[in-house]
């Protein structure tokens, strides 16, 4: 309990401290980390708890990002209008894509979600009116949330609310049903659970929250481009979820923090001896990410334990 | 390839009806068709006056048709209590409840515990299902089917892989529940079959060879030739 | 060419039950290696053959070291691990070669060939079609008529049974993977003069290859062939006619913008449609 209070206080006063010491960059960076934490958490719901390996999750983030951006670009500057619109759009996309994809299983499901994401990518790239390939720049953030500190608190609030929702969800009837379906789909159906309905609901909720993350992302950088929807982005979100712990409440958040933190460290803080060993190593950060990921998958599947070989706590039941 | 050929089966309420026959005779296929995992090419299935031929698996469970599996299919990483609690949850109202923790629903767990008592697993309620002995897992299979409060329960070789002691336990279990629920029992254990069954149907090569009271079946020459043979003393 | 990649992929998936995202990276390696070898030997044919051999060897090394431990794992682990491999291989290639490596078309084949009076077709493309056709026949022959082919097919439709019958699974897997890698390299090397040889070329074609095998049914070479042809045809028709069709219905500005996008989307729509009616593809190898 003490640890929780301590952490909460840190998160709350962090931006003020940074502002006072003229380090606003870190506040912005923290916001960015939290936004990705939100996106990764939404994927964790679908992937970790629901067991649905969706390679197209970036499409929902992207939908939210674009809808939010288009709102601002077209003059609808209030976040109260733009952001819910983004969430609704992403939820709708998830509903349609999920309804079709969830009829398949296994690798077919992975492929079809991937395909839909690619479709979205191409569609968005062709929208010349909204920047096409080059993307869309926003004149300002919605509701004039230009102040970094204020934006930080907004994001913090939304992330906390979502984590709370996920926590309640995981322990609710819905959460149990979803995890049971993940564990043994046939049995779940054979005890009377309409599997398709619950999976779809889970998929849509995940998509909706992803849309919110997308809206925040677009507003954060005041810029959005089709790459947000690319399947490699889905991959990156997956890496975050794996790093942090599949099916565990903080999995998405921790994974995002670790991955983005590492990327930042590697990019901005050259290590002298490494530099001598391999000049320009910073350009090849992906190599490190790849190696780390491979190592985790091969040797330290505790992060993957949620899907493969779950250890549970103290002999009580599953559901993280 | 025809798995079940013109099978016409009638099960009376409240009875224990056994389905026997050699391996590959189509028993499991028939069960799959009845419970809904396999759609029949022709024919229809009626459950208490209602046609359920096109109903989905979970719909059939909802109207009272439950099944236990031949190859144990349980939630291995859930505790025994949680296994059954999930089935009770599925039966009692919608699971579109997002906020309230399941742990608060004491009624749910009470009912789950009662069922565990029925199948003699109450002492292992907190054990992970995957860690149970084989016999206990088979009992849990039956428990899961019972938790849905079915009117008809299909037990697909519940005694598969059991030793004599465990088999006796399973027989006793079926005796206990027969007053509450109609049972369609698929089994190879002739001892159990002749002890429990009110009526027996024999399936050979996808066809229904005979159907009637145990004595009739035992005395039936065709059945003896096709299946029973020396398996059982007259 | 798509068929070559798809065939290798479907075999690996069908037999080893492994989702290999790095398949596209082998294709990329084939292209880069070809570029180097052709430059070294001065001969297009020799360069390509060397590249194919080298890639096959590399593929087999990869299989015996890393991929083997993935066979028993769940699909998600395989997806992530091979995704990691993509990242690693991309960067390694970038370190060794830089971001791209040009491979010029062999002079002898760069001109058009007169197929029929008045119908001219680029010679190189003919070569590609020819090679594709030849490989398809070769694969068909190998898989359907030889003992090894039978083992492969048995492994694809029922791995446990094949194991139980004493087939040397490890060796078979390694060879199959090597063959798949070789197919990738052929495709990569041959397509190199036409498309740009650059880091990341593997990913785009990888998705297409997956679409093909999903449409065709996993584990089925016939499915891969049918799928590849289907995808090729639909894609071409889509790109050719959809913008025109759009032009009929919409204003020119919208049509010119949406047309090409919709065209590239047709393949995915095709896949989605097929999966909707046949969730396991057209010719699933597994029962």
Note poorly predicted spans of chain A.
304-320
Largest sheet of chain A: 2 strands, antiparallel
Shape of chain A: globular
Spatial sequence of strands, sheet with the most strands of chain C: 1-2
Chain pair sharing the greatest interface: A-C, 47 and 45 residues
Descriptive report:
Helix content of chain A is 71%, strand content 1%. Chain A has 320 residues and is mainly α. Chain A has a domain at 29-230. The two termini of chain A are 19 Å apart. By secondary structure, chain B is an alpha/beta fold. In chain B, the strands form 2 sheets. Chain B has a 6-stranded mixed beta sheet with strand order 4-5-6-1-7-8, with helices on both faces. Chain C has one domain: ABC transporter involved in vitamin B12 uptake, BtuC. In chain C, 74% of the residues lie in helices and 3% in strands. Chain C has helices spanning 2-16, 23-41, 44-65, 75-97, 123-145, 147-157, 159-164, 169-191, 201-216, 221-249, 252-277; strands spanning 112-116, 119-122. Chain C has a two-stranded antiparallel sheet with strand order 1-2. In chain C, a hairpin with a 2-residue loop joins β1 and β2. The longest helix of chain C is centred in the last third of the chain and has 29 residues, at 221-249. The mean pLDDT of chain C is 72. Chains in contact: A-B, A-C. At the A-C interface, α5, α10 and α13 of A face α4, α9 and α11 of C.
Topology:
The complex is a heterotrimer of chains A (about 325), B (about 230) and C (about 290).
Chain A: H1 2-20, H2 24-49, H3 57-73, H4 79-101, H5 106-125, E1 136-137, H6 148-171, H7 173-183, H8 185-190, H9 195-221, E2 223-224, H10 231-244, H11 251-268, H12 272-277, H13 285-299
Antiparallel strand pairs in A: 1-2
Helix pairs in contact in A: 1-2, 1-6, 2-6, 2-9, 2-10, 2-11, 3-4, 3-5, 3-9, 4-9, 6-7, 7-9, 10-11
Chain B: E1 16-20, H1 27-35, E2 46-47, E3 50-51, H2 57-62, E4 65-68, H3 80-91, H4 106-118, H5 134-147, E5 152-156, H6 164-177, E6 182-186, H7 190-196, E7 199-204, E8 207-212, H8 214-219, H9 221-228
Parallel strand pairs in B: 1-6, 1-7, 4-5, 5-6
Antiparallel strand pairs in B: 2-3, 7-8
Chain C: H1 2-16, H2 23-41, H3 44-65, H4 75-97, E1 112-116, E2 119-122, H5 123-145, H6 147-157, H7 159-164, H8 169-191, H9 201-216, H10 221-249, H11 252-277
Antiparallel strand pairs in C: 1-2
Helix pairs in contact in C: 1-6, 1-8, 1-9, 1-10, 2-3, 2-4, 2-8, 2-9, 3-8, 5-6, 9-10, 9-11, 10-11
């Amino acid at each position: 309990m003490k640890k929780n209070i301590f952490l909460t206080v840190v998160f709350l006063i962090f931006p003020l401290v940074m502002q006072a010491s003229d380090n606003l960059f870190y506040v912005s960076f923290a916001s960015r980390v939290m936004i990705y934490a939100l996106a990764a958490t939404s994927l964790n719901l679908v992937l970790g708890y629901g067991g649905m390996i969706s390679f197209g999750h970036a499409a929902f983030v992207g939908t939210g990002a674009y809808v939010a951006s288009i709102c601002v670009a077209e003059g609808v500057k209030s976040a109260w209008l733009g952001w819910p619109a983004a969430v609704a759009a992403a939820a709708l996309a998830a509903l349609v894509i999920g309804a079709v994809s969830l009829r398949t299983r296994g690798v077919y499901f992975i492929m079809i979600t991937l395909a839909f994401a690619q479709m979205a990518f191409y569609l968005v790239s062709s929208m010349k009116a909204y920047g096409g390939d080059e993307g869309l720049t926003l004149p300002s953030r919605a509701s004039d949330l230009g102040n970094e500190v204020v934006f930080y608190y907004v994001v913090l609030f939304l992330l906390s609310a979502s984590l709370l929702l996920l926590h309640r969800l995981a322990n609710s009837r819905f959460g149990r049903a979803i995890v049971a379906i993940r564990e043994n789909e046939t049995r779940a159906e054979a005890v009377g659970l309409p599997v398709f309905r619950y999976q779809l609901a889970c998929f849509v909720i995940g998509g909706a929250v992803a849309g919110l993350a997308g809206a925040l992302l677009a507003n954060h950088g005041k810029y959005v481009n089709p790459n947000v929807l690319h399947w490699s982005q889905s991959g990156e979100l997956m890496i975050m979820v794996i790093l942090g712990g599949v099916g565990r409440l903080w999995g998405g958040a921790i994974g995002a923090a670790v991955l983005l933190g590492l990327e930042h460290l590697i990019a901005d803080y050259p290590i002298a001896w490494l530099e001598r060993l391999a000049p320009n190593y910073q350009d090849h950060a992906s190599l490190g990410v790849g190696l780390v990921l491979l190592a985790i998958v091969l040797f330290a599947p505790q992060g993957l334990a949620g899907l493969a070989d779950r250890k549970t706590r103290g002999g009580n039941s599953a559901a993280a | 390839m025809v798995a079940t050929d013109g099978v016409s089966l009638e099960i009376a309420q409240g009875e224990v009806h056994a389905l026997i026959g050699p391996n590959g005779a189509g028993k499991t296929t028939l069960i799959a068709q009845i419970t809904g995992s396999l759609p029949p090419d022709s024919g229809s299935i009626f459950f208490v006056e209602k046609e359920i031929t096109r109903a989905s698996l979970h719909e059939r469970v909802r109207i009272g048709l439950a099944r236990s599996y031949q190859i144990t299919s349980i939630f291995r990483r859930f505790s025994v209590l949680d296994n059954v609690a999930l089935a009770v949850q599925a039966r009692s109202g919608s699971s579109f409840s997002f906020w309230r923790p399941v742990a608060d629903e004491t009624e749910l767990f009470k009912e789950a515990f009662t069922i565990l008592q029925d199948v003699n697993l109450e002492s292992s309620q907190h054990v992970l299902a995957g860690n149970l002995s084989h016999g206990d897992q088979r009992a849990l299979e039956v428990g899961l089917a019972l938790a849905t409060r079915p009117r008809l329960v299909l037990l697909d070789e519940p005694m598969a892989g059991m030793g004599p002691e465990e088999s006796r336990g399973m027989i006793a279990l079926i005796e206990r529940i027969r007053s509450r629920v109609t049972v369609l029992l698929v089994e190879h254990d002739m001892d159990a079959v002749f002890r429990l069954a009110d009526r027996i149907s024999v399936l050979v090569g996808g066809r229904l060879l005979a159907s009637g009271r145990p004595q009739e079946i035992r005395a039936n020459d065709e059945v003896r030739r096709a299946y029973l043979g020396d398996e059982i003393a007259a | 060419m798509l068929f070559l990649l798809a065939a290798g992929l479907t075999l690996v998936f069908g037999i080893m039950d492994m989702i290999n995202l790095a398949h596209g990276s082998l294709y990329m390696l084939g292209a880069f290696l070809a570029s180097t070898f052709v430059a070294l030997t001065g001969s297009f044919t020799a360069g390509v053959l060397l590249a194919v051999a080298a890639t096959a060897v590399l593929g087999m090394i990869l299989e015996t070291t890393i991929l083997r431990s993935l066979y028993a794992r769940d699909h998600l682990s395989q997806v992530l691990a091979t995704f990691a491999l993509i990242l690693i291989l991309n960067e390694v290639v970038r370190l060794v070669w830089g971001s791209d490596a040009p491979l010029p078309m062999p002079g002898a084949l760069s001109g058009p060939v007169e197929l029929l009076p008045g119908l001219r077709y680029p010679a190189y493309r003919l070569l590609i079609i020819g090679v594709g056709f030849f490989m398809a026949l070769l694969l068909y022959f190998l898989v359907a008529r030889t003992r090894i082919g039978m083992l492969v097919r048995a492994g694809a439709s029922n791995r446990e049974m094949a194991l139980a019958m004493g087939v040397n699974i490890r060796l078979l897997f390694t060879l199959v993977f090597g063959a798949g890698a070789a197919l990738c390299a052929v495709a990569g090397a041959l397509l190199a003069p036409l498309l740009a040889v650059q880091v990341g070329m593997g990913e785009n074609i990888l998705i297409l290859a997956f679409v093909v095998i999903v449409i065709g049914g996993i584990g089925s070479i016939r499915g891969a062939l049918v799928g590849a042809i289907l995808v090729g045809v639909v894609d071409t028709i889509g790109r050719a006619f959809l913008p025109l069709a759009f032009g009929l219905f919409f204003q020119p500005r919208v049509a010119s913008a949406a047309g090409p996008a919709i065209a590239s989307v047709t393949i995915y729509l095709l896949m989605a449609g097929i999966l909707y009616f046949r969730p396991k593809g057209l010719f699933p190898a597994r029962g």
